[in-house]
């Protein structure tokens, strides 16, 4: 009697039990799993080799190389990398709260404090990547921002009032924390998906890779891998957190591209009526078409609306 081999036999051989699907992307599916030996819950990103050409296979290795080097509380931690004839398996710590995107849908929108609470954590991960590692993420979006709910313990001086999102609508910032937690789940925000990320600096010397001296201007100017692309995306995420829908949207991809390239977005009424000038100003400085005028990550943390929030956090939080 022949037992049909399990599709992901390799996982089982390495003591990873796997369960239901948590999410998927263009080339991958992500399953909930467990490291049988340690008992730890994991997320297993499975990439089918059949669907990938050689350069895409290379980018899987790049993703793993970058992931291995990262160590930050707001970035998903890498555990292991396995492969067999058919699949690559990237094993990471599980973020059980799921995508931040679903939290936005649950709440319809976040309160300003909750938006700042989330965006500051995202920004912490970006500050680490840009300033300490020299990596541009390049794919910052709600689907790649996950919640790890375990760490969240509302202390007596941190998030004070938990209100229903309806109550928040009429409430302005009162110098205390207004958290629009209408059934949503709060936790540590973790950045995931380094599939498009790119190493731009040598980490030790903090100099650009290779010699720039002989590079053509069009290549030097190529801003595809500039850190500022993450800052634009940060602006899109912040906008979405504040009002519940993205700044740029169009069914037709040409129209959408046109709007983005011109920076055509609005603080649409009535959704933005109640949102503070400080929040709008922060969004404006991130969604700046001219990348030189756009905030970099250090300027983001100096933004008055952000700074006033961080200043009122307890020091040890
Ligand atoms: P892709 O490159 O295919 O977009 P991602 O790494 O973004 O792959 O993972 C796809 C989806 O799987 C995510 O949007 C999320 O829903 C889920 N996911 C990924 N990593 C984890 C994790 N560590 N914990 C929980 N869910 C995850
Ligand atoms: Mg993704």
Observed structural traits:
single chain; 317 residues; alpha+beta; five-stranded antiparallel beta sheet; three-stranded antiparallel beta sheet; 12 strands; globular; binds adenosine-5'-diphosphate; binds magnesium ion
Commentary on this structure:
The protein is 35% helix and 18% strand. The chain contains eleven helices and twelve strands. It has helices at 9-13, 54-69, 100-107, 112-133, 165-169, 217-220, 228-243, 253-262, 277-286, 297-302, 304-312, and strands at 16-24, 28-35, 41-48, 78-83, 87-93, 98-99, 135-136, 145-148, 161-163, 178-180, 188-191, 198-199. It has a five-stranded antiparallel beta sheet with strand order 1-2-3-5-4. The longest helix is centred in the middle third of the chain and has 22 residues, at 112-133. The chain starts with 8 loop residues before the first helix and ends in a 5-residue tail after the last helix. Bound molecules: adenosine-5'-diphosphate (ADP) and magnesium ion. Residues 22-28, 30, 43, 45, 76, 92, 94-95, 99, 143-144, 146, 192-193, 195 line the site of adenosine-5'-diphosphate. GO terms for molecular function: ATP binding; protein serine/threonine kinase activity. This is Serine/threonine protein kinase.
